Amino acid sequence: MSDILTRELIEEAEGFGPPPVETPPTVAPRPHGRGRRVAAWWRRNLVLVASAAVLLGAVGFAVAPSVFASGDPLVGVPAQKLQAPSAAHWFGTDNIGRDVYTRVVHGAGLSLTATLLAVGIALVAGSLIGLLSGALGGTLDAVLMRIVDVLLSIPALLLSLALVTALGFGTVNVAIAVGVSLIANFARVMRSEVLRVRRSLYVEAAFASGVRWHTVLRRHVLRNSYAPVFALAAVEFGMAVLAVSSLSFLGFGAVPPTPEWGSLISEGRNYLATAWWMTTLPGLVIVVVVLSAHRLGHALEQREVR
């Protein structure tokens, strides 16, 4: 008996004994199914949500600038000129002591108003040209598309510069010039959509049943063609912000000292060596707004493709 016990003790010591009982690992409880879906959606659309928040903030600047910056954008304190960004002045001060952040916030009104006007002009005029060209065809289509080809052959900024030189200075003239330069893009997209919808069976049936052509265009063709054009408008919004700011930088916008995003960068270019924030920080605001508009526009385009 003692020999058997001794042998069992030796086997256990050498690893030949019965295997130890393993306890199953503790599994953390999984979150609720709805919570997982919400978390996954936030991970996928974090950039999209951030872009929407940036654009909403820019709209807030334009609609109620005094809520975000209560100071006077035109009055400065000479004793505080060229101060670096700090808790008192988030974007620093300019060469006559005006708060740059306050001027950026108040400048959003003119810059975004001009941008919206430019996109509105391009959207309405380009959609009308594309609708008539694609629906009626023939000689009218050929003439309108040749005009659109001429507009597309000229760089948009160069065309805007030529138009605003002819029209004169001012925010409205800048918006008109930028809007005209964007018409061709909207006309092309609308025409391609109209040609696609025009060949649909329900449109052919409407024409065959005797419905007037303008009624068919309004009820059937236009209603099923505008979605990609609105997605393009979101993309072109960012380009319009950049074009309006560029013309303002060149001095074609509002008369100083009225703040505009482009003119703010122009005012600080002579102080790059000593006050980099006068150009860098307003420029970053423009970059963030343009990239956010592009992100939302591409998201709308992908949704339309699906």
UniProtKB/TrEMBL annotation:
Pro residues bias (residue ranges): 17-28
Gene Ontology CC: plasma membrane
GO biological-process terms attached to the record: transmembrane transport
Residue ranges constituting the ABC transmembrane type-1 domain according to the UniProt record: 108-297
Residue intervals passing through the bilayer: 46-68, 108-131, 143-164, 170-190, 229-255, 275-293
UniProt main location, coarse: membrane
Compartment(s) of residence: Cell membrane
Membrane topology: Multi-pass membrane protein
Keyword terms: Cell membrane, Membrane, Transmembrane, Transmembrane helix, Transport
PANTHER family tied to this protein: D,D-DIPEPTIDE TRANSPORT SYSTEM PERMEASE PROTEIN DDPC-RELATED, OLIGOPEPTIDE TRANSPORT SYSTEM PERMEASE PROTEIN APPC
Family stated for the protein in its record: Belongs to the binding-protein-dependent transport system permease family.
Name this protein carries in UniProt: Dipeptide transport system permease protein DppC
Region listing for Disordered, in residue ranges: 14-33
Record lineage: Bacteria, Bacillati, Actinomycetota, Actinomycetes, Mycobacteriales
SUPFAM superfamilies: MetI-like
